[in-house]
Amino acid sequence: MNAQSPESAYESLVQHSRELTWTAGLQALLEWDQEVNMPPAGAQSHSEMSGIIARIVHRKAVDERVGGWLEAAALKTDWPLVHAANIREWKRDYDKARKLPEEFVKKQAEVTARAYHVWRDARETDDFGVFAPTLAEVVDLAKQEADYYGWKDERYDALLDLFEPELTTSRCEALFADLRAELTPMVERIVAGQGPAPGPFGAAAFPIEAQADFCRRVSGALGFDFDAGRLDPTIHPFTTGIAWGDARITTNYNTSDPLDSLSSTVHETGHGIYEQGVSFDGTPAGQACSTAVHESQSRLYENEVGRGRAFWRYWQPGLNAQYGTDESEDDLVRRVTWVEPGLVRTRADEVTYNLHVIVRFEIERDLFRDELEVADIPRVWRQKYKDYLGVHVPGDLDGVLQDVHWANGLFGYFPTYTLGNVYAAQLFDAARREIPGLENAIASGDFKPLRDWMAEKIYRWGRVYTPEQLIENAAGSPVSTSFFIEHLKARYLRQ
Hints:
CATH architecture of the largest domain: Orthogonal Bundle
Structural class: mainly alpha
Order of helices and strands: HHHHHHHHHEEEHHHHHHHHHHH
Shape: globular
Distance between the termini: 65 Å
Radius of gyration: 23 Å
Strand order of the largest sheet: 1-3-2
Mean pLDDT: 96
Helix content: 55-70%
Largest sheet: 3 strands, mixed
Number of domains: 2
Number of helices: 20
CATH class of the largest domain: Mainly Alpha
């Protein structure tokens, strides 16, 4: 019998959780360095370091004392809301971690660290064949991971659940079927009615230094605290929360189009503000709720705010001053809301974006059903892009090699992008209803009312609620795709 009182056991769990969180922060720092700073020659040693730190994190996560503390804490049934949520999430994390053997965790970390560098090499040569053998290793390990966790209906379900608790393949299929039914005719209608494409944008080349300065100013105005974070360039933009006071965002600069890097920066700023907004106290209640909720914050800033007229009413003069351009507010709104099926997900407009996600979801699903071989992914990719977006994929660089996720072993991640879009539209709809004059505030460069609303409705709750409970509590209605569809209709079809 455990001699600890429930209260004492809870305090032991808090202390252990904090130590685990800070140790995982070291792991995140290593991953950030890999994509931002590390010289190419460090790949092998970096892979070994990744394996070692992953093993250390895993050992701490499966510490047998945690089981005893959880048993003792469970003897008390009237915990306050936050305490009860922490205990629930600690148990979920502990049960999952204990299903993975230590050597497997170490090997998976080593292989994915190596895979990242192989992926970069493959991009340099525009050749998926360079990456395919390593990707096959990563996929095989992900299948083993899913089997270790266990699954009932689909192996892929075990991986989806890592990023969005209780998300399943069947739910994704239903969600994507509904969206495709709405989006396919919507894209055709918008493209047919939007007239001639915008002409060339400004100068022949936009210096990276000028873009970095402008992106930093916009990010800071939105609410990203540069005393508690930083912005760096990388191949594939991402955000990493290292610890309290250390949230790192990245972007990718396109010297022919500064709106590319601006959109990417605004997106990652949404992630970064969320990281800076949660308490980060080392417990689940101080952590982001889920991947899709995290994505809702980036997509809300990128799309609902960053593609909106109010945003450009404020930023149009500053952009022209920065780049020596002469773009009107209408010009800029037209550019950022131009709909055109294309090859690259991260450059996609908000109407076609989810079709890119569907391609990736279906490929991942079929991989984990053993209905698709890694070597056949480029062929299937090209066919799906022709069927869903009507575009020809000329090579692997802007095709199957464009995303870093598979190199990192992040199978089950892509569907959360679409869920994030759904959540974002519903949250922004609620924010507009509840914040008087929100659009006027944005048009005057005041983003604090929106940030404060998100802090109250989303940030402060961490993982206290499940993702769908959190969104329903914040928005006042159950999660629904209808808000996203209505948002697109209102913006692009003027309905």
